[in-house]
Amino acid sequence: MRPDTDIQYLPGVGPKRAQLLRSELQVNTLADLLRTYPFRYVDRSSFTPIAQINSDSAFVQFKATVASVEVKNKRLSVLVGDGTGSVELVFFKGVRWIQEKLRFGTTWIFFGKPQAWNGRFNFVHPEVDSVEKAVSEGAGNLTGVYNSTEKLKNAGITGKVMNKIVHTCLESCIGEIQETLPEYVLREKGLVDIKTALRDIHFPRDTRSLDKATYRLKFEELFLLQTSLLKQKYIRSHGSAGIVMPKVGEAFNACYNALPFPLTGAQKRVITEIRNDMKSGHQMNRLLQGDVGSGKTIVALLTALIAVGNGFQSCIMAPTEVLARQHFRNISKYLAPTGVKAAILTGSSKTAERREIHKGLEDGSIGVIVGTHALIEDNVTFKNLGLAIVDEQHRFGVDQRSKLWHKATCGAPPHVLVMTATPIPRTLAMTLYGDLDVSVIDELPPGRKPIKTMHAYEDKRYGLNNFMRGQIALGRQVFVVYPLIFESEKMDYKNLEQGYEQMVHDFPMSDYKIAIVHGKQSPEEKDYNMNAFVNGTANILMATSVIEVGVDVPNASVMVIESAERFGLSQLHQLRGRVGRGSQDSYCILMTGNKISKESKHRLDMMCATENGFELAEEDMKMRGPGDIEGTQQSGLPVNLSIASLAKDGIILNDARSYAASVLERDPDLSSPANASLAAELRKGKYDIKDYSKIS
User: Fold this and answer.
1) Strands 107-112 and 60-72, bridge-based pairing
2) What is the pTM of this model?
3) Residues 363, 368, 371, CA angle at the centre, nearest 5°?
4) Residue 143 burial by CB count (10 A; 0-12/13-18/19+): exposed, middle or buried?
5) Degrees to nearest 5, angle at CA 590 with 585 and 593
6) pLDDT per residue as tens digits for the range 414-454
7) Dihedral angle over CA of 540, 543, 549, 555, nearest 10
8) Are the C-beta atoms of 62 and 107 separated by less than 8 Å?
9) Which of 517, 577, 503 is nearest to 545 (CA)?
10) Per-residue 3-state assignment (H helix, E strand, C coil) for 499-517
């Protein structure tokens, strides 16, 4: 059978089972089934004595003799023993058939997962094999355990059935499987061929053959992914001529020399990387990663001034009006000694103001424009846009970004710098942004005070309120962040509505001003309340995590995060970064109920132990998997990985990426006969990254 044959035609499957395999495991063809790998293996050669089994045990295999068989309330209860102890087996289906089979005094091999029940444990529907059959089938083999669902189990597609189907599939189409990697790659990297790898990943003869198969398949997956990404990057950087910007110019020097602080080594390194891009003759497509407060804005401004110094305009696009105005305030201070004219364009810009700005952009008198989505409206035209800087780029849709791109009138696309304050683990960045060059500002400016982070339980609420009153009395402001907006029947977490009522009671309006911001408000309401806090009119800002990105209130010294166990590490770190912007001591208090899971406690302890966002992001990925690190599940990844893990396989990923780069250096479009299988595999499109990061 061909690997692309519909799964329903495999003996033992049929239309009904095929439908379930499609909906539950996304298996449509024989090839899909072969690429659905076991997630762990059980050694069926050894038996666990019943005395050593408890309800915490994983899947176990034991040999036991039937001591009694009894039907109770339509279920079959079978008591078995092995000399060290006895255990109950429970069957709800196929009762008559099992009763016939498991006769008193007969010995069988059982396999299953123990479950706690009534203070003891039992096995529900364990697999049952005769001793003779287990010996004849070679019980020494490792047996794969596949992902399953309730629907699959209820339809009789048990682990045993799954193994049988996969075995049939291998035997049916292994002869037709085509090698995906060039022969020289297998040789140079010491990899087993694809047929051996697929046999040994499903039915390993021993741990050595399993390790070789696993390594081959992980390397293949990451190598193909990185080859696809680097090929896109190579085509774009060599195919699109960029605007050449050979000098830094007077404006850059005037701003740089007037800075009231020295740049960090990391900032200088990043500016050098950007400068090399801008004078290379190829279009820059660079991601700038920098932890909260690391000084990305000043790097963005100096980059904009390089463009201005070469006779081009720059634009800086932010996702919200609050963030755009903050950027404009900050860069205006530093632009003073340069004589460069800057402007801001947002949804709330007045008509007369807009007219002036449009005119300044068209005649080139405005050198740097800061704005929101308003920058991409059709009536905004530039004289010579040479650089587009996009802040927190994941907040913008692809269409919005490409509109900005098409405003270039210089005959070449503008250079592009995308910035994010969300620390992304290196392995994830190499996948999400593998087709961009990545710069990282990995040191904080000197003199920045650490934020004191502590975890407190609900019973410390009274003390917390007193602490907040004390900080407000000193003229400081307080953020209070909640994970939910409205009451949810299933969740007993504190939410914003309840919290607001309690806060007004604890901090009466006659003495305190409280602003509230959440995702259900209109943009006008949100901006009004946000500005009340930014301007210092409100003492306390209560919000959901919408305030996570970018908002800079130097006077805010306290961040209280309610139900902190509900947030991921990266999100907690982003929220913490909203304080510590001024010269005073700053605090982050992680509030939780008195009962939290061991994993949540570990996460909160990590937060209290370090302020390094990249360290926390790595830990977050290990704990939650590499689905979008900002909190969504696996769908956050732009490509589905079947066997490799970005959290665990960083070493293989690095090796695969550098090897892919060397392959493309020799054969950029993979047109040589030696790379025919590689080119064919990439044409299938599995490794095409969805447009996650590109502006173009």
Assistant:
1) antiparallel
2) 0.65
3) 105
4) buried
5) 150
6) 888 888 877 777 667 767 666 677 888 877 777 677 899 99
7) 0
8) no
9) 517
10) HHHHHHHHCCCCCCCEEEE
pLDDT tens sequence across 335-372: 999 989 999 998 888 889 999 999 999 999 999 999 98
| CA distance linking residue 594 with residue 474, whole number of Å | 30
Residues 162-178, buried b or exposed e (16+ Cβ, 10 A)?
bbebbebbbebbbeebe
| CA geometry: angle 670, 675, 681, nearest 5 deg | 85
SS3 of 168-223: the string is: HHHHHHHHHCCCCCCHHHHHHHCCCCHHHHHHHHHCCCCHHHHHHHHHHHHHHHHH
Round to whole Å and give the CA distance between 651 and 644: 11
Q: List beta partners, residue 107.
A: 65
Of 102-116, 369-383, 548-562, least confident by mean pLDDT is 548-562
Residue 153 token pair: 């189990």
Q: Which amino acid is at 557?
A: S
User: How many C-beta atoms surround the C-beta of residue 399 within 10 A?
Assistant: 8
Sequence-distant (≥ 6) Cβ neighbours of residue 471 within 8 angstroms: 478, 557, 558, 587
The whole-angstrom separation of Cα 496 and Cα 492 is: 12
Rounded to an integer, what distance in angstroms lies between the CA atom of residue 226 and that of residue 237? Answer: 16
Half-sphere exposure of 559 (CA within 13 A, CB side): 29
Q: How far apart are CA 625 and CA 621, in angstroms?
A: 5
- The answer to whether 236 and 219 have CB atoms below 8 angstroms apart is no
Q: Answer for the pair 537, 513: CB distance below 8 angstroms, yes or no.
A: yes
Host H or E run for residue 281? none
Tell me the CA end-to-end span of the chain in Å, nearest whole number: 43
Whole-angstrom distance, CA of residue 560 vs CA of residue 479 = 6
pLDDT, position 321 = 83
What does the alpha-carbon distance between residue 660 and residue 644 come to, in Å, rounded to a whole number?
16
Is 407:381 a contact under the CB 8 Å cutoff? yes
Q: Do residues 467 and 478 make contact, with C-beta atoms less than 8 angstroms apart?
A: no
Report which of 589, 603, 545 is spatially closest to residue 422, judged by C-alpha positions. Answer: 545
Whole-number Å distance between alpha carbons of 482 and 548: 11
Instruction: Tell me how far apart the alpha carbons of residues 565 and 274 are, in angstroms, rounded to a whole number.
Output: 39
Q: Which residues pair with 591 in a beta bridge?
A: 456
- Helices 207-239 and 194-202, interaxial angle, to 10°? 130
In the block, residue with structure tokens 């609420």: 461
Other C-beta atoms closer than 10 Å to the C-beta of 539 total: 22
Q: Give me 171's structure tokens.
A: 């035997």
* pLDDT of 620 higher than 80: no
Signed CA dihedral, 237, 239, 243, 246: sign only: positive
Q: Supply 336's token pair.
A: 């003073």
pLDDT in tens, 44-60: 777 889 988 877 777 78
Q: Strand (E) positions, 494-616?
A: 514-517, 540-543, 556-561, 586-592
587: which strand partners? Answer: 452, 558
Dihedral class, residue 519 (left if φ above 0, else alpha if ψ from -120 to 50, else beta)? alpha
Q: How far is CA 535 from the centre of its chain?
A: 34
Q: How far apart, in whole angstroms, are the C-alpha atoms of residue 502 and residue 319?
A: 32
| Amino acid symbol at 196 | T
What are the tokens at 520? Answer: 């259900």
Angle at 690 between CA 684 and CA 696, to 5 degrees: 115
- Among 467, 507, 462, 502, smallest CA distance to 482 is for 502
Vertex 593: Cα angle to 581 and 564 (nearest 5): 30
Q: Are 55 and 116 in contact (CB under 8 A)?
A: yes
Q: What beta strand segments (E) does 31-177 contain? A: 40-43, 60-72, 75-81, 86-91, 107-112, 114-117, 120-124, 127-130, 142-145
- So what's the pLDDT on residue 216? 96
